Amino acid sequence: MARNVPLFALLLLVLSALSASLVDAREHGQPSLVLPLLDSLEQGLRFFTENTASVNVDGMFALRLTQGQLVDIRNDTRVWDSLSSEIQDKITAMIEIPDAIYAETHAQMAQFKPAYFALFLPALTRPVHVDWRRQSLNLPTWDIVSETADYVMSQQAQTVHNYTETDICYSNILSNSKCAISKVCVNMLMRPNKKQYASTHQLLYTQMAEIQGCSEELERSLQKWYAKSVDDVKEDLCRNIYKDASIVYARTEPASLLSDLFLEQNALCLSAGFVEFLRFDWLSAVLSWQRMNGCFGLELESANPVTGRRLLMERSMGGGCGSHISGLATTYLSTFLKNLLFLL
To answer: DSSP character for 17?
Structure first.
């Protein structure tokens, strides 16, 4: 697959000195990684500015999540003041990019999928911020070798989760200023042992509540019906997602539907602050998937069609590039950057 060879080679040299752990990240120091990581993120954002005609709702939502991560970095005085003027200038410039893309694309997005656009409009017009705090998972021990061998992306796995139900729950959150949290949606959130996109959609529901300022109402509802907190639920979900992502990482290939799933798993749990997802071997793999033009690909014609629907919907941007997967990649890179800077 085509990639930005000079940048990727540089990143591999940096990453080769690092293990998968955050402890090693602290020991080695990260200024040498921040600039190449920013360059990769900038390339991803520039790709969208050069291909606005094919941006879809999912891609735009991911760009707003990316923007929110960068704004969080700028707004943290301790972190911001520790950065060089070169890095500050790069971040400041990238923060403006999603606004320009939305201004150019909102009309065609509304025309392409009117109902879908209306559903997510509240999350498309501004930077999206989700609650972040440093968190650690109490990870169980499992046999990843045997589980990887048995990990089959089946039609059954696709249909276990009711995506219409989650769309309705997202709509109720985003369109209701009174933060109405129904028991149906809380039950959806609490269904145990979900995998793949089903579990990331559950986590996304908690973040939709945060985006709309409905976390307190969701907390009350969870305590009322399940005696659980939002933090408990997010930790349970990301623990399950981490196990799933570890297996996906062992199986995925560039431009496959598994790479899209892997990006989604990492972006959402990193945005919540779970440090186990700050893995440099995983980052290295993702960076190797980036193409010369900055996009990330999804070759649907050669992919297994039964892996389940992605975060929302994909749209081809030509040349094997996908709007959703490319947007997810920018979100992943920005969440990795934020966690890296906030935790050092």
So the answer is: T
Higher pLDDT: 310 or 128? It is 128
φ and ψ at 298, to 5 degrees?
A: -145, 100
For residue 140, the 8-state DSSP code is: P
Scored b (16 or more CB within 10 A) or e, 35-74 reads ebbbbbbbbbbebbeebeebbbbbbbbbbbbbbbbbbbbe
Residue 78 sits at the vertex; the CA angle it makes with 20 and 230, to the nearest 5 degrees, is 65
- The encoded tokens of residue 286 equal 């993702």
97, amino acid identity? I
For the chain, the straight-line distance linking the first and the last C-alpha, in angstroms and rounded, comes to 34
List the single range of 47-56, 68-77, 113-122 with lowest mean pLDDT: 113-122
**Gyration radius (Cα) of the chain, Å:** 19
Residue that the structure tokens 């169980």 belong to: 140
Check residue 306 and report its DSSP letter.
Answer: T
Q: Rounded to whole angstroms, how far apart are CA atoms 221 and 215?
A: 10
pTM of the model: 0.85
Q: How confident is the model at residue 183 (pLDDT cuts 50, 70, 90)?
A: very high
- H-helix segments, 152-277: 155-159, 163-175, 183-190, 196-211, 215-226, 230-251, 257-272
Q: Which residue has the tokens 């219409």?
A: 164
